[in-house]
Specification:
Structural class: mainly alpha
Shape: rod-shaped
Strand content: under 5%
Number of strands: 0
Helix content: 55-70%
Order of helices and strands: HHHHHH
Radius of gyration: 26 Å
Length: 100
């Protein structure tokens, strides 16, 4: 596997440094804030999808989300609203084929 190396003015040969097309500039490490933003964006990308959404939601939001799927599978809204949350969650997992 190839190792990536930053190309900076400092690690050029003397001949390359004399080239008029080469502009010297100092290499600056990314700010801590930039690194944190990158990691946050990366984390947000991995939490997409139904499981990532469920992890972020409150119980009421989860009930609405799961109910939206179950209504399409033949369950009525009244049934869903009356179900205890544990029963609703088990039913949702069965319908979606999620193993816990």
């Amino acid at each position: 596997m190839a190792i990536a190396k930053a190309i900076t003015y400092e690690n050029l040969t003397e001949e390359q440094k004399r080239d008029p097309k080469v502009v010297p500039f100092p290499y600056k490490k990314p700010f801590l804030q930039e690194i944190e933003e990158y990691l946050k964006d990366k984390e947000d990308q991995t939490s997409r999808g139904i499981i990532g959404q469920l992890a972020k939601d409150t119980l009421e939001e989860e009930r609405i989300l799961m109910g939206g799927y179950l209504v399409g599978k033949g369950f009525s809204e009244k049934e869903i609203l009356r179900m205890p949350f544990d029963v609703l969650k088990d039913l949702f997992n069965n319908v979606m084929g999620v193993q816990e």
